[in-house]
Amino acid sequence: MNRTFRFQGFIFIGVIFLLSFDSVHAQKISSQKLDGYVTRILKTFEVPGLAVAIVKDGKPVLTKGYGVRQLGNPARVDNQTLFGIASNTKAFTAAALAILVDEGKIAWDDRVIDHMPEFQMYDPYVTREITVRDLLVHRSGLGLGGGDLLLWPSTTFTRHEIISRLRFVKPASSFRSKYAYDNILYLVAGQIIPEATDTSWDDFVRQRIFAPLGMASSNTSIRSFQSGDNIAIPHARIEGRVQPMEYSNLDNVAPAGAINSNVTDMAKWVIAQLDSGRIRSEQNGKLRLFSSRETDEMWSPQTIIPVRKPPSGLSAVRPNFSGYGLGWVITDYRGKKIVYHTGVLPGMVSRVTLVPDLKLGIVILTNQEAAGAFNALTYYILDTYFGVSPMDWIKVFYSAAKDWEDKAKEIETRQETARVRDSKPSLPPEKYSGQYTDAWYGEVTISLEQETLVLRFSHTPSFVGDLEHWQYDTFVVRWRDRGLRADAFLTFALNPDGSIDQVKMVPVSPLTDFSYDFQDLLLKPVKKDTDTHK
To answer: What fold is seen in the domain 429-525?
Structure first.
């Protein structure tokens, strides 16, 4: 989804670009050198498999796979291997809406409630004023990843239920005042499509984008996978070791991140993007997905992304400007406009990069959560086509990731050092058990099982965790699914009579995916004789 980058450390690395450089001389990339570079990347970042597409001047230069689909299995990645492209889906959702704008069925500045009268945000003013454009540009006032626990990890909520609960998610800032990446409003954007066409987002993307482009292998749900299909398996470092993971089902938030594709299909998508929405083929002649006017709209900065001082070791990668368009990030690299997006799922990360002036496009799909891999490869390819000697990008991004991990460990060490180990909970264990509810998420249960307090989120099957006492009335929830990598502090606040007033949660590690927005929950005990929001 996040997605977007999902990881806080990766978000910064993915958004920064190099300082300007005036001389651009396109070069032909050496397949042999590229193969050697990718081999180094796979080893350095412990990535099992990777696929890359390069397009130039309307034609594929390279579509190739490297490594394996799954550790322990000899099946190789090739140019037909499907990966989850995560938040690179957002550009497809923006393009789908652009098609409807061209057809006069919607306008970017239409109010959302004019198409979805039942839609509500927390603030009535925002409900009244938010537009279709606002849904796509991360300036709604929601906090980073606001409301993501409604969809992340996989939940039982339907698309309609997620949108309905959005009205209870409190904003973190005023409307249109600042950039904060979100996923949930892309779901809303996707649901504009059935309101305007009586066709689901999924069918519209298949019929109006995949089919004309000839993206025959791409789909919008992992439910399309069949046994024996050419599919990359997600991997992540779990408990110190890279290992396979289950695919995440994103059906309920599909417009934000559910597309699965391969580099052969994605090359066709990139060629159309770089040709202002045109499709050229012997069978179809010249067709259009969307107009050049809408290309300009999607590739124009709509929300400013602050340019911050980069961490140590990355001082050379500060951009001159950065902004979010409609489904794309727009920035600069060596004096050229860059249009790009990234995607992050559990066990998969990807990146799509366009250089409009050079008609150059790069797609990199991987099956491990190592953003340094696709960043290093992207910059290597860009520098080659820009006619400059590439830096050792593998070393640069590996060092940046290592520094971030080291800083996170320092924070966790300070937490451990400051912990008051001999403190005791205020209440006996059974007094903490019971049902709790949050206004936007819903029900959470804490139960005493074999002398251990166990936390369960009612709509998130994987959220089952054991509580370990930390200090005073704060516990740490250790999720039984260690692949979540999202342990959290759970703090109980008591009333004067010793009863529980509320419970707050925050992630333990700064490396925790921002979509685990525990900090936005306010859990209140459920009184058995009263009705609660469900």
So the answer is: Lipocalin (2.40.128)
